[in-house]
Amino acid sequence: MNSPLAAVRRVPRRTWIRYRFVFLVLAPVMALFIYLRIVPAGQALLMSLFDWGLIKPADHFVGLDNYVNLLSDDNFRLAFMNTTFFAVATTVISVVLALALAALLARFVTGRIGGALELLYFAPVLVSMVPVTLGWREIFNYQHGILNSALGLVGISRQAWLSDPTMALVGVVILSVWKQVGYNMIILIVGMRAIPHVFHEAAAVDGASAWQQFRWITMPLLAPVTLFVVVITTISAYNVFTQVYVLASDVQGAPGQLVRVLVYDIFENGFRFFKMGYASAEAMYLFAVILVLTVIQFRFLRGSAE
Amino acid sequence: MTRPRAWIKTLALVSTLAIVVGACSSGTATQAPTAAASTTPSAAAGSTGPAPSASAAAVNACGDAPVTLNVWGGYPEVDAVYKLAGENFKKTHPNVDFTVFSTDLRGFEQKLSTALPSKTAGDVVVRTTNFLSRFIDQGLLAPLPDDLKTFVTGGAYDPAIVADNTYANKNWGVPLFIGTAGIYYNTDMFTKAGITAPPTTMDEIIADAKKLAVVDASGSLVTSGLSLRLSGQGSGVAEKFWILLLQSGRTLIKETSPGKWQADFNGPEGVKLFQMYVDLLKANIDSLNIDSDAKAFETKATAMFLREAWVIPEIATKAPALVGHYQTISPPVGSLVTSESMFVPAASPNAACAWEFVRFLKEQEQQISMVTISGWLPARKDLDLTAFLAANPTYAGFFTHPAGFKLTYTPPIAEFDEIETKLATHLVAAYADFANLAGQPDKIQTLLNTWADETNSILKTNGHFGG
Predict the structure, then answer these.
(1) Which residues of chain B have a CB within 8 Å of the CB of A53?
(2) What pLDDT shows up at residue B327?
(3) What per-residue confidence (pLDDT) applies to A197?
(4) Which of residues 239-278 of B touch A (CB under 8 A)?
(5) Is-same-fold flag (B58-180+338-391; B186-337+412-461)?
(6) I need a surface site. Which of B9, B89, B100, B134 has the fewest CB within 10 A?
(7) What does the CA dihedral A229, A235, A239, A240 come to, rounded to 10 degrees?
(8) Which residue has the higher pLDDT, A62 or B6?
(9) Minimum mean pLDDT among B218-222, B405-409, B444-448: which range?
């Protein structure tokens, strides 16, 4: 009898006038959202059922052939594996690193120094990905990049960041984590600072250490924020494209085809090979993967929050 | 039914209706990625109604009312040529203004793929007939006027260039400039290595490369003997492999019967060429970890490399100290030729004036300025280049060829770019694995056969396979 649904049932009928106003106010935004997001997605779904060459009308219905053919496409399988590795690595590293930085800055390094450090870590987020990638390409340079120079100072031999298949993918992960961690950190800091101090004070009175407080108080209460950060980082990671495209766009030792990712494969199939139906089917696969992962993350992290 | 569930059901119903309505709507508008344009084309202004026919007096082709012609190209270094030609054209056509739009080649192709169907492309579009063939199929490009058709087939161009511009048994586009490979070599490095004459065969090229490579005290390569194209986006890696394959008499795909093709790169010559690549990498004559291509040559990180003539003015600008210390030679047996040709979109409101500008661009003066300004070679073979070559001897490798030298053109099939790009993908991955492939001809043969199967599969899908 005290459930939210029961409370809704007790609202008088005339209150629907208030809801009608809400519908009216939301209608333009919803219309725009539907036109810009839902309609194109629906069109992509429809395109995926056709053999459409972009230039000519889509008049050859192929059903699920595009989906079936993709499963045996080596480029698609490689792109899927690379993208999954990239997404998992980037999400895990950037979230864990952001948590650690947020914990330090939220509790121990405050004031002006804390503010300056927050800005410093957030600065990469403000820079466009294209110049960031161009800069990192020089950092990764085998012969004169500063990364290999720094590794040489501690006795590690030069790494072929841009020409070794494994190192190329690791290089893109490093670049992306560097770009993403500041954004995650800021959101987590806000979440941490929103946790009432009384919980930590009570735990301290009970003799809990800093780590115990973090593990048993901060982390559970931060779960909704962590969920948000993990979900958006995963979605963003699965949509990786710019850094791979820019790194591959030059002849100078770029990873090129070594770091084939899903969005790049979609782009190439659609706009290079003019196989738009095929590319749309690939986009549907990407959508399905992200949707499944998002649902899993919601179930897992929301459950731990409750 | 509770109100929250009613909301959800209403929203779901509206969304579903929107999807159905949107998906069933007609029209061919597409979402296009943003191209990094250097200039924005302005709308053509002052169209004078129905365009006069191409055979009308040239003076009236552009009328008297103000006209703005938009010239679109995929090579920004050629912009200055169009602009100069525009200024010269304006002397006899004072009512005509020009805007030039160019971006990197791949961005330009993406731009065309949406601009041509939506009838928003320029008045003169410069690209290869092979790439534009899919647009030709949809009637988006105007056929050549009779006088230009006669000119193109009348002996002004090499037969390979005419063939490069033939699609569906018709001539399309007026060739403007061509790309064909030459070998650049650093004469100082040759002298230092004790090499007294440039190589004339592939074996000599490899032998010289081994003498020219320089390593530092730690054994790392600092100067490659021959800079191979080992990485990068697109089809360039496969294109350079193709050029070197031509030196052995084989090609990427061969025509087995009219309109039918088959992979030709997985024979013994292909295996030998691929072995050459991995052997040079294993012997540290070239490396994946140093600069390559034009940049390497300009910074003296390589002694030899293969490229088109556009590098020559780039060297004069970016590495002037290198001028006088390098030369070019022709590949020993043959080379690819790709011709960038001038087309007028069918939807151009200034078609007659655009064709008039095309006629102007093909003339000797504009063709000479093409090579002097951009370095790209003029498409016409009937030009008097004596004075130009005397003043610019470094272009010799692109105009002087051994007896029997053969130009090969791109197969006139729309899917060729997909074939070449996918082969490039495989080559890049294989080069990165050179350590496991060097000295393994059987493994290399297996790889090449697998890639050839993919090539033949693409040909089959498009109805062009002839086994």
Answers:
(1) 134
(2) 97
(3) 86
(4) none
(5) yes
(6) B9
(7) 30
(8) A62
(9) B218-222
List the single residue in A16, A258, A268 with the smallest CB-CB distance to B432. A258
Tell me the CATH number for domain B186-337+412-461: 3.40.190.10
Instruction: Determine, for residues A45 and B23 on separate chains, whether the beta-carbon distance falls below 8 Å.
Output: yes
Q: Biggest alpha carbon distance in chain A?
A: 77
- Delineate the domains of chain A, giving CATH numbers in brackets: 4-47 (no CATH), 65-305 (1.10.3720.10)
The number of angstroms, rounded, from the C-alpha of B215 to the middle of its chain's C-alpha atoms is 34
pTM of the model: 0.84
Sort out which chain B residues have CB atoms less than 8 A from A46's CB and list them: 23
| Long-range contacts, B34-38 (Cβ 8 Å, 24+) | B35/B103, B35/B107, B35/B108, B35/B110, B35/B111, B36/B103, B36/B104, B36/B107, B37/B101, B37/B102, B37/B103, B37/B107, B37/B111, B38/B76, B38/B79, B38/B101, B38/B102, B38/B103
Pick the CATH number of B58-180+338-391 from 2.30.40.10, 3.30.450.20, 3.40.50.300, 3.40.190.10: 3.40.190.10
Is the per-residue pLDDT at B393 higher than 90?
Answer: yes
> Is some CB atom of chain A closer than 8 A to the CB atom of B236?
yes
Do residue A256 and residue B417 have CB atoms under 8 angstroms apart?
Answer: no
| Residue B424 sits at the chain A interface (C-beta within 8 Å) | yes
Spans of chain A, pLDDT less than 50: 1
ipTM: 0.81
Give residue limits of the domains in chain B.
58-180+338-391, 186-337+412-461
- 8 Å CB contact of A274 and B134: yes
Amino acid at B418: E
Q: How confident is the model at residue B421, as a pLDDT? A: 93
A35/B18 CB distance under 8 A: yes
